[in-house]
Protein backbone atom coordinates (compact mmCIF):
# COMPACT_ATOMS: atom_id res chain seq x y z
CA UNK A 1 0.00 0.00 0.00
CA UNK A 2 1.18 3.54 -0.68
CA UNK A 3 0.02 7.05 -0.23
CA UNK A 4 -0.10 7.53 -3.98
CA UNK A 5 -2.79 4.84 -4.15
CA UNK A 6 -4.78 6.44 -1.36
CA UNK A 7 -7.21 9.28 -1.37
CA UNK A 8 -6.51 12.96 -0.84
CA UNK A 9 -9.31 14.06 1.42
CA UNK A 10 -8.83 17.80 0.99
CA UNK A 11 -10.48 20.11 3.48
CA UNK A 12 -11.43 23.40 1.92
CA UNK A 13 -11.32 24.58 -1.68
CA UNK A 14 -10.36 22.19 -4.43
CA UNK A 15 -11.28 19.02 -2.57
CA UNK A 16 -13.75 17.90 -5.20
CA UNK A 17 -11.32 18.55 -8.04
CA UNK A 18 -8.60 16.43 -6.39
CA UNK A 19 -10.97 13.48 -6.03
CA UNK A 20 -12.21 13.81 -9.60
CA UNK A 21 -8.66 13.84 -10.95
CA UNK A 22 -7.84 10.60 -9.09
CA UNK A 23 -11.02 8.77 -9.99
CA UNK A 24 -14.46 8.39 -8.43
CA UNK A 25 -13.47 5.35 -6.35
CA UNK A 26 -10.39 6.98 -4.79
CA UNK A 27 -12.45 8.55 -2.01
CA UNK A 28 -13.13 5.10 -0.54
CA UNK A 29 -9.59 3.71 -0.78
CA UNK A 30 -8.76 4.75 2.79
CA UNK A 31 -11.49 2.40 4.06
CA UNK A 32 -9.75 -0.50 2.27
CA UNK A 33 -6.38 0.54 3.75
CA UNK A 34 -7.94 0.75 7.22
CA UNK A 35 -9.43 -2.75 6.92
CA UNK A 36 -6.03 -4.11 5.82
CA UNK A 37 -4.44 -2.33 8.79
CA UNK A 38 -6.81 -4.02 11.24
CA UNK A 39 -5.94 -7.44 9.78
CA UNK A 40 -2.21 -6.70 10.04
CA UNK A 41 -2.60 -5.59 13.66
CA UNK A 42 -4.37 -8.86 14.42
CA UNK A 43 -1.43 -10.73 12.89
CA UNK A 44 0.87 -8.77 15.22
CA UNK A 45 -1.33 -9.76 18.22
CA UNK A 46 -1.88 -6.17 19.28
CA UNK A 47 -4.74 -7.19 21.60
CA UNK A 48 -2.34 -8.90 24.03
CA UNK A 49 0.69 -6.68 23.40
CA UNK A 50 -0.94 -3.25 23.48
CA UNK A 51 -4.66 -3.05 24.24
CA UNK A 52 -4.67 -5.08 27.45
CA UNK A 53 -1.50 -3.48 28.82
CA UNK A 54 -2.67 0.08 28.04
CA UNK A 55 -6.33 -0.64 28.91
CA UNK A 56 -7.56 0.53 25.49
CA UNK A 57 -10.60 -0.45 23.48
CA UNK A 58 -10.00 -2.20 20.14
CA UNK A 59 -10.57 0.20 17.20
CA UNK A 60 -13.31 -0.48 14.68
CA UNK A 61 -12.64 -1.41 11.06
CA UNK A 62 -13.04 2.23 9.96
CA UNK A 63 -11.75 3.92 13.15
CA UNK A 64 -9.09 6.14 11.51
CA UNK A 65 -11.08 6.69 8.29
CA UNK A 66 -13.99 8.63 9.84
CA UNK A 67 -13.88 11.56 12.31
CA UNK A 68 -15.33 10.70 15.74
CA UNK A 69 -13.25 12.20 18.58
CA UNK A 70 -10.08 13.99 17.33
CA UNK A 71 -8.31 13.99 20.71
CA UNK A 72 -8.95 10.30 21.36
CA UNK A 73 -8.08 9.36 17.77
CA UNK A 74 -4.79 11.31 17.90
CA UNK A 75 -3.79 9.64 21.19
CA UNK A 76 -4.69 6.22 19.75
CA UNK A 77 -2.66 7.00 16.60
CA UNK A 78 0.44 8.02 18.60
CA UNK A 79 0.15 4.96 20.86
CA UNK A 80 -0.23 2.54 17.93
CA UNK A 81 2.61 4.19 15.98
CA UNK A 82 5.00 3.97 18.95
CA UNK A 83 4.10 0.32 19.55
CA UNK A 84 4.58 -0.56 15.85
CA UNK A 85 7.96 1.22 15.75
CA UNK A 86 9.10 -0.79 18.77
CA UNK A 87 7.81 -3.98 17.11
CA UNK A 88 9.83 -3.06 14.01
CA UNK A 89 13.04 -3.11 16.06
CA UNK A 90 13.50 0.61 16.72
CA UNK A 91 13.53 2.05 20.28
CA UNK A 92 10.75 4.60 20.67
CA UNK A 93 9.32 6.04 23.87
CA UNK A 94 5.60 5.71 24.45
CA UNK A 95 4.08 9.22 24.09
CA UNK A 96 2.22 10.73 27.01
CA UNK A 97 -0.81 13.02 27.06
CA UNK A 98 1.22 16.08 28.15
CA UNK A 99 3.84 15.70 25.35
CA UNK A 100 4.09 18.24 22.54
CA UNK A 101 2.03 16.87 19.59
CA UNK A 102 4.29 18.53 17.01
CA UNK A 103 7.39 16.88 18.45
CA UNK A 104 5.64 13.50 18.64
CA UNK A 105 4.51 13.72 14.99
CA UNK A 106 7.99 14.81 13.88
CA UNK A 107 9.58 11.82 15.66
CA UNK A 108 7.09 9.39 14.09
CA UNK A 109 7.70 10.78 10.57
CA UNK A 110 11.48 10.63 11.03
CA UNK A 111 11.21 6.96 12.03
CA UNK A 112 8.96 6.35 9.01
CA UNK A 113 11.54 7.94 6.67
CA UNK A 114 14.30 5.88 8.28
CA UNK A 115 12.46 2.76 7.03
CA UNK A 116 12.72 4.12 3.47
CA UNK A 117 9.09 5.22 3.26
CA UNK A 118 8.04 8.52 1.69
CA UNK A 119 6.17 11.13 3.72
CA UNK A 120 5.70 14.06 1.31
CA UNK A 121 2.84 15.69 3.22
CA UNK A 122 2.75 18.32 5.98
CA UNK A 123 2.83 17.03 9.57
CA UNK A 124 -0.35 18.98 10.34
CA UNK A 125 -2.32 16.33 8.39
CA UNK A 126 -1.73 13.90 11.28
CA UNK A 127 -2.95 16.24 14.04
CA UNK A 128 -6.60 15.48 13.35
CA UNK A 129 -6.04 11.79 14.19
CA UNK A 130 -7.96 10.47 11.16
CA UNK A 131 -7.76 10.50 7.38
CA UNK A 132 -5.79 8.90 4.59
CA UNK A 133 -2.40 10.09 5.88
CA UNK A 134 -2.99 8.53 9.32
CA UNK A 135 -4.03 5.23 7.70
CA UNK A 136 -1.00 5.38 5.39
CA UNK A 137 1.52 5.93 8.22
CA UNK A 138 0.08 3.14 10.40
CA UNK A 139 -0.13 0.74 7.44
CA UNK A 140 3.55 1.34 6.54
CA UNK A 141 4.64 0.84 10.15
CA UNK A 142 2.57 -2.37 10.38
CA UNK A 143 4.26 -3.71 7.25
CA UNK A 144 7.70 -2.93 8.70
CA UNK A 145 6.74 -4.69 11.95
CA UNK A 146 5.61 -7.77 10.00
CA UNK A 147 8.93 -7.76 8.12
CA UNK A 148 10.82 -7.55 11.42
CA UNK A 149 9.09 -10.61 12.90
CA UNK A 150 9.69 -12.55 9.68
CA UNK A 151 6.08 -12.79 8.53
CA UNK A 152 5.56 -13.53 4.84
CA UNK A 153 2.36 -13.56 2.84
CA UNK A 154 1.60 -16.93 1.25
CA UNK A 155 -0.45 -17.61 -1.82
CA UNK A 156 -4.05 -18.54 -1.06
CA UNK A 157 -4.92 -22.22 -1.42
CA UNK A 158 -8.38 -22.73 -2.84
CA UNK A 159 -10.24 -25.98 -2.00
CA UNK A 160 -10.90 -28.23 -4.95
CA UNK A 161 -14.60 -28.87 -5.30
CA UNK A 162 -15.69 -31.97 -7.14
CA UNK A 163 -18.69 -31.03 -9.20
CA UNK A 164 -20.84 -33.91 -10.34
CA UNK A 165 -22.08 -33.10 -13.77
CA UNK A 166 -25.58 -34.31 -14.41
CA UNK A 167 -25.63 -36.23 -17.64
CA UNK A 168 -28.86 -35.57 -19.42
CA UNK A 169 -29.69 -37.19 -22.72
CA UNK A 170 -29.39 -34.72 -25.52
CA UNK A 171 -32.82 -35.61 -26.88
CA UNK A 172 -34.46 -34.81 -23.51
CA UNK A 173 -32.40 -31.74 -22.52
CA UNK A 174 -32.32 -29.52 -25.58
CA UNK A 175 -34.41 -29.78 -28.70
CA UNK A 176 -34.28 -27.88 -31.89
CA UNK A 177 -37.36 -26.35 -33.41
CA UNK A 178 -37.50 -28.98 -36.16
CA UNK A 179 -37.29 -31.87 -33.67
CA UNK A 180 -40.08 -30.33 -31.57
CA UNK A 181 -42.34 -30.21 -34.62
CA UNK A 182 -41.49 -33.81 -35.56
CA UNK A 183 -42.20 -35.16 -32.06
CA UNK A 184 -45.46 -33.22 -31.91
CA UNK A 185 -46.60 -34.78 -35.19
CA UNK A 186 -45.63 -38.28 -33.98
CA UNK A 187 -47.57 -37.86 -30.75
CA UNK A 188 -50.66 -36.78 -32.72
CA UNK A 189 -50.52 -39.87 -34.97
CA UNK A 190 -49.86 -42.28 -32.07
CA UNK A 191 -52.50 -40.98 -29.70
CA UNK A 192 -55.44 -40.20 -31.99
CA UNK A 193 -57.47 -42.91 -30.33
CA UNK A 194 -57.07 -41.26 -26.93
CA UNK A 195 -58.54 -37.88 -28.00
CA UNK A 196 -62.22 -37.09 -27.34
CA UNK A 197 -64.44 -35.59 -29.99
CA UNK A 198 -64.77 -31.87 -29.40
CA UNK A 199 -68.48 -31.81 -30.26
CA UNK A 200 -69.27 -34.54 -27.73
CA UNK A 201 -67.19 -32.72 -25.09
CA UNK A 202 -68.97 -29.47 -25.89
CA UNK A 203 -72.42 -31.08 -25.52
CA UNK A 204 -71.49 -32.67 -22.22
CA UNK A 205 -70.14 -29.38 -20.93
CA UNK A 206 -73.32 -27.56 -21.97
CA UNK A 207 -75.50 -30.10 -20.13
CA UNK A 208 -73.38 -29.83 -17.01
CA UNK A 209 -73.64 -26.05 -17.10
CA UNK A 210 -77.40 -26.21 -17.45
CA UNK A 211 -77.68 -28.64 -14.54
CA UNK A 212 -75.42 -26.58 -12.28
CA UNK A 213 -77.00 -23.23 -13.17
CA UNK A 214 -79.89 -24.01 -10.88
CA UNK A 215 -77.57 -24.99 -8.03
CA UNK A 216 -76.18 -22.48 -5.57
CA UNK A 217 -72.73 -21.33 -6.60
CA UNK A 218 -70.02 -22.57 -4.25
CA UNK A 219 -66.50 -21.22 -3.62
CA UNK A 220 -64.04 -22.59 -6.19
CA UNK A 221 -61.26 -24.63 -4.58
CA UNK A 222 -58.33 -26.33 -6.31
CA UNK A 223 -58.25 -30.10 -6.02
CA UNK A 224 -54.77 -30.45 -7.59
CA UNK A 225 -52.10 -32.17 -5.49
CA UNK A 226 -48.97 -29.97 -5.12
CA UNK A 227 -46.58 -32.95 -5.11
CA UNK A 228 -48.04 -34.35 -8.33
CA UNK A 229 -47.91 -30.90 -9.90
CA UNK A 230 -44.19 -30.46 -9.06
CA UNK A 231 -43.39 -33.94 -10.39
CA UNK A 232 -45.15 -33.11 -13.65
CA UNK A 233 -43.24 -29.83 -13.94
CA UNK A 234 -39.91 -31.62 -13.43
CA UNK A 235 -40.84 -34.18 -16.07
CA UNK A 236 -41.90 -31.65 -18.71
CA UNK A 237 -39.25 -28.98 -18.03
CA UNK A 238 -36.36 -30.58 -19.99
CA UNK A 239 -38.59 -30.92 -23.06
CA UNK A 240 -39.47 -27.21 -22.98
CA UNK A 241 -35.84 -26.14 -23.54
CA UNK A 242 -35.40 -24.85 -27.07
CA UNK A 243 -32.10 -23.82 -28.65
CA UNK A 244 -32.10 -21.45 -31.59
CA UNK A 245 -29.31 -22.07 -34.02
CA UNK A 246 -27.07 -19.08 -34.70
CA UNK A 247 -27.14 -17.61 -38.14
CA UNK A 248 -23.80 -17.76 -39.92
CA UNK A 249 -24.54 -14.49 -41.68
CA UNK A 250 -24.32 -12.41 -38.49
CA UNK A 251 -20.54 -11.90 -38.69
CA UNK A 252 -20.87 -10.64 -42.25
CA UNK A 253 -23.23 -7.94 -41.06
CA UNK A 254 -20.68 -6.88 -38.46
CA UNK A 255 -17.92 -6.79 -41.09
CA UNK A 256 -20.05 -4.54 -43.30
CA UNK A 257 -20.64 -2.24 -40.37
CA UNK A 258 -16.89 -2.16 -39.67
CA UNK A 259 -16.21 -1.16 -43.29
CA UNK A 260 -18.82 1.58 -43.08
CA UNK A 261 -17.33 2.94 -39.87
CA UNK A 262 -13.85 2.79 -41.38
CA UNK A 263 -14.91 4.78 -44.43
CA UNK A 264 -16.64 7.33 -42.18
CA UNK A 265 -13.53 7.68 -40.04
CA UNK A 266 -11.32 8.16 -43.11
CA UNK A 267 -13.61 10.83 -44.56
CA UNK A 268 -13.77 12.64 -41.21
CA UNK A 269 -9.99 12.34 -40.89
CA UNK A 270 -9.46 14.02 -44.27
CA UNK A 271 -11.61 16.96 -43.20
CA UNK A 272 -10.08 17.32 -39.74
CA UNK A 273 -6.52 16.82 -41.00
CA UNK A 274 -6.71 20.06 -42.98
CA UNK A 275 -7.96 21.97 -39.95
CA UNK A 276 -5.28 20.40 -37.76
CA UNK A 277 -2.54 21.29 -40.28
CA UNK A 278 -3.74 24.89 -40.36
CA UNK A 279 -3.82 24.99 -36.57
CA UNK A 280 -0.32 23.50 -36.43
CA UNK A 281 1.01 26.12 -38.84
CA UNK A 282 -0.61 28.93 -36.89
CA UNK A 283 0.81 27.62 -33.61
CA UNK A 284 4.29 27.32 -35.16
CA UNK A 285 4.15 30.91 -36.46
CA UNK A 286 2.94 32.13 -33.08
CA UNK A 287 5.77 30.30 -31.31
CA UNK A 288 8.31 31.86 -33.69
CA UNK A 289 6.88 35.30 -33.00
CA UNK A 290 7.00 34.67 -29.27
CA UNK A 291 10.62 33.49 -29.51
CA UNK A 292 11.72 36.51 -31.51
CA UNK A 293 9.87 38.85 -29.16
CA UNK A 294 11.48 37.17 -26.18
CA UNK A 295 14.94 37.64 -27.67
CA UNK A 296 14.17 41.33 -28.35
CA UNK A 297 12.96 41.85 -24.78
CA UNK A 298 16.05 40.11 -23.39
CA UNK A 299 18.32 42.36 -25.45
CA UNK A 300 16.43 45.47 -24.36
CA UNK A 301 16.48 44.51 -20.68
CA UNK A 302 20.06 43.24 -20.52
CA UNK A 303 21.34 46.26 -18.58
CA UNK A 304 18.40 46.05 -16.17
CA UNK A 305 19.18 42.37 -15.58
CA UNK A 306 22.79 43.25 -14.79
CA UNK A 307 21.66 45.98 -12.40
CA UNK A 308 19.33 43.49 -10.76
CA UNK A 309 22.18 41.01 -10.32
CA UNK A 310 24.37 43.73 -8.78
CA UNK A 311 21.53 44.68 -6.45
CA UNK A 312 21.12 41.02 -5.48
CA UNK A 313 24.84 40.83 -4.65
CA UNK A 314 24.62 44.00 -2.53
CA UNK A 315 21.55 42.60 -0.81
CA UNK A 316 23.38 39.38 0.08
CA UNK A 317 26.32 41.40 1.48
CA UNK A 318 23.95 43.56 3.50
CA UNK A 319 22.27 40.43 4.85
CA UNK A 320 25.63 39.02 5.94
CA UNK A 321 26.51 42.28 7.71
CA UNK A 322 23.07 42.31 9.31
CA UNK A 323 23.54 38.75 10.58
CA UNK A 324 26.93 39.66 12.04
CA UNK A 325 25.51 42.79 13.65
CA UNK A 326 22.52 40.91 14.99
CA UNK A 327 24.91 38.41 16.58
CA UNK A 328 26.74 41.25 18.38
CA UNK A 329 23.46 42.79 19.43
CA UNK A 330 22.38 39.46 20.91
CA UNK A 331 25.59 39.22 22.94
CA UNK A 332 25.26 42.79 24.19
CA UNK A 333 21.62 42.19 25.04
CA UNK A 334 22.65 39.22 27.17
CA UNK A 335 25.30 41.33 28.97
CA UNK A 336 22.75 44.10 29.51
CA UNK A 337 20.36 41.59 31.05
CA UNK A 338 23.08 40.38 33.45
CA UNK A 339 24.04 43.97 34.45
CA UNK A 340 20.37 44.84 34.94
CA UNK A 341 19.92 41.82 37.19
CA UNK A 342 22.94 42.82 39.32
CA UNK A 343 21.64 46.40 39.51
CA UNK A 344 18.28 45.16 40.73
CA UNK A 345 19.99 43.12 43.45
CA UNK A 346 22.04 46.16 44.60
CA UNK A 347 18.92 48.34 44.65
CA UNK A 348 17.12 45.76 46.75
CA UNK A 349 20.02 45.64 49.24
CA UNK A 350 20.13 49.46 49.44
CA UNK A 351 16.41 49.59 50.09
CA UNK A 352 16.72 47.01 52.87
CA UNK A 353 19.59 48.94 54.52
CA UNK A 354 17.78 52.27 54.17
CA UNK A 355 14.63 50.87 55.70
CA UNK A 356 16.66 49.50 58.62
CA UNK A 357 18.42 52.90 59.13
CA UNK A 358 15.25 54.96 59.10
CA UNK A 359 13.55 52.66 61.55
CA UNK A 360 13.48 54.17 65.20
CA UNK A 361 12.92 50.92 67.01
CA UNK A 362 16.66 50.24 67.65
CA UNK A 363 17.14 53.73 69.20
CA UNK A 364 14.24 53.19 71.56
CA UNK A 365 15.71 49.86 72.60
CA UNK A 366 19.11 51.53 73.21
CA UNK A 367 17.56 54.25 75.37
CA UNK A 368 15.65 51.69 77.38
CA UNK A 369 18.86 49.72 77.87
CA UNK A 370 20.73 52.84 79.04
CA UNK A 371 17.97 53.68 81.51
CA UNK A 372 18.03 50.15 82.83
CA UNK A 373 21.84 50.30 83.14
CA UNK A 374 21.60 53.55 85.11
CA UNK A 375 19.08 52.04 87.49
CA UNK A 376 21.24 48.98 87.97
CA UNK A 377 24.30 51.24 88.55
CA UNK A 378 22.46 53.17 91.27
CA UNK A 379 21.41 49.93 92.93
CA UNK A 380 25.00 48.69 92.78
CA UNK A 381 26.29 51.94 94.31
CA UNK A 382 23.81 51.58 97.16
CA UNK A 383 24.84 47.99 97.73
CA UNK A 384 28.54 48.98 97.64
CA UNK A 385 27.88 51.73 100.23
CA UNK A 386 26.07 49.34 102.50
CA UNK A 387 28.89 46.82 102.18
CA UNK A 388 31.54 49.52 102.93
CA UNK A 389 29.58 50.71 105.97
CA UNK A 390 29.24 47.17 107.25
CA UNK A 391 32.95 46.55 106.65
CA UNK A 392 33.87 49.77 108.47
CA UNK A 393 31.72 48.87 111.45
CA UNK A 394 33.29 45.41 111.60
CA UNK A 395 36.78 46.93 111.49
CA UNK A 396 35.96 49.46 114.21
CA UNK A 397 34.48 46.74 116.36
CA UNK A 398 37.57 44.59 115.92
CA UNK A 399 39.78 47.57 116.77
CA UNK A 400 37.83 48.32 119.95
CA UNK A 401 38.01 44.69 120.95
CA UNK A 402 41.76 44.63 120.42
CA UNK A 403 42.19 47.80 122.46
CA UNK A 404 40.16 46.39 125.31
CA UNK A 405 42.12 43.19 125.23
CA UNK A 406 45.38 45.11 125.33
CA UNK A 407 44.25 47.17 128.36
CA UNK A 408 43.19 44.04 130.12
CA UNK A 409 46.62 42.45 129.79
CA UNK A 410 48.53 45.57 130.89
CA UNK A 411 46.70 46.08 134.25
CA UNK A 412 47.56 42.74 135.83
CA UNK A 413 51.28 43.14 135.12
CA UNK A 414 51.38 46.49 136.97
CA UNK A 415 49.73 45.04 140.03
CA UNK A 416 52.24 42.18 140.15
CA UNK A 417 55.17 44.59 140.05
CA UNK A 418 53.82 46.58 143.04
CA UNK A 419 53.64 43.59 145.20
UniProtKB/TrEMBL annotation:
A Gene Ontology cellular-component term: cilium
UniProt-annotated location(s): Cell projection, Cilium
Species this protein is from: Heterocephalus glaber (Naked mole rat)
Family: Belongs to the IFT57 family.
Spans through the membrane: none
Keywords: Cell projection, Cilium, Coiled coil, Flagellum
InterPro entries listed in its UniProt record: Intra-flagellar_transport_57 (IPR019530)
Name of this protein: Intraflagellar transport protein 57 homolog
GO biological process assignments: intraciliary transport; non-motile cilium assembly
Organismal lineage: Eukaryota, Metazoa, Chordata, Craniata, Vertebrata
One of the Pfam families matching this protein, by short name: IFT57
Coiled-coil intervals: 298-356
Amino acid sequence: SGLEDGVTRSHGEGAGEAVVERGPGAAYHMFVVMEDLVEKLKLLRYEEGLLRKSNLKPPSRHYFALPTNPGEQFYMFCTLAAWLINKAGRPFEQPQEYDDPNATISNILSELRSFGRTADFPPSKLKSGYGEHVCYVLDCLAEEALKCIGFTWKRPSYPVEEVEEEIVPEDDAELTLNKVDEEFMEEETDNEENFIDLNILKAQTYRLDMNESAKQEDILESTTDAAEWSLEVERVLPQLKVTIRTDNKDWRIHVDQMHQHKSGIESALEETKGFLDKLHNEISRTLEKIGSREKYINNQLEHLVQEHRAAQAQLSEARERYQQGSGGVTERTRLLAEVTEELEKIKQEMEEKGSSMTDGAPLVKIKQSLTKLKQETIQMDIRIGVVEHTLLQSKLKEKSNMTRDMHATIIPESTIGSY
